[in-house]
Amino acid sequence: MGKGLSSSSNVIVGGINRESGLFSHPGKFLEDHLKSVAEIGALSLNDTPNLLIDREVLKKVTEIVTLSHDIGKANAYFQRYITAPKEEMDSLKNRKSTHALFGAVVAYFLTKEFLEREEKLDGFNRFLPVAAFLVCRKHHGDLADFNSHIILDEKDELLLNEQLKSIDREKFDILLQSIGSPFDFKWLQGKFENLKAVF
Asked: Are 111 and 64 in contact (CB under 8 A)?
């Protein structure tokens, strides 16, 4: 993800200030939420004791995880749900409108690529892509059984691809620019084609 976070969600596209128009919560832009969580994550690292993982690596992985955790909310099913009138929201809440698994897959691939690029995918760091995946996947619940959460079945793969296809690419690109993301929609499409081989 990007080197530093700007405080504004606006992105200049064609000389015009733009926001993605994607929401994380009613009335709250998704990019603002992701950047806010990333800032809190960065601050919380100051309170952690020394670990067996290099602090700079941990900072980058924390940034990746916090900026990825809700990125699945960009899917059209979630956007319909979060922008619906209150009385309609319950009827729009379903498997397609979920987001945690999508963010988990993004966090996994970004963490793995970062560690490979830095030639640091060794020792305890080999677990970091899986840790990033698990943190995002279970950020709304408890981790009950490790093994059951790191395997994707055919239904998961179908769901993820359906969610990906539903995303408004223009809005998604604005979101990614706003959070300083190193990837684009095409990169994500390529990664999603190999889900079965990876998971």
From this structure: yes
Coil, helix or strand for 182? Answer: coil
Rounded Cα distance, 71 and 99, in Å: 7
Range 67-86 average pLDDT: 97
3-state secondary structure of 139: coil
Phi-psi bin for 83: left (phi > 0), alpha (psi -120 to 50), beta?
alpha
pLDDT tens by residue, 152-195: 889 999 999 999 999 999 999 999 999 998 889 999 999 999 88
Number of neighbours of residue 145 by Cβ within 10 angstroms: 7
- Cα–Cα nearest to 20, from 143, 177, 191: 177
Contacts of 57 (CB under 8 A, 6+ apart): 115, 118, 120, 125, 128
Nearest Cα residue to 156 out of 78, 96, 112, 90: 96
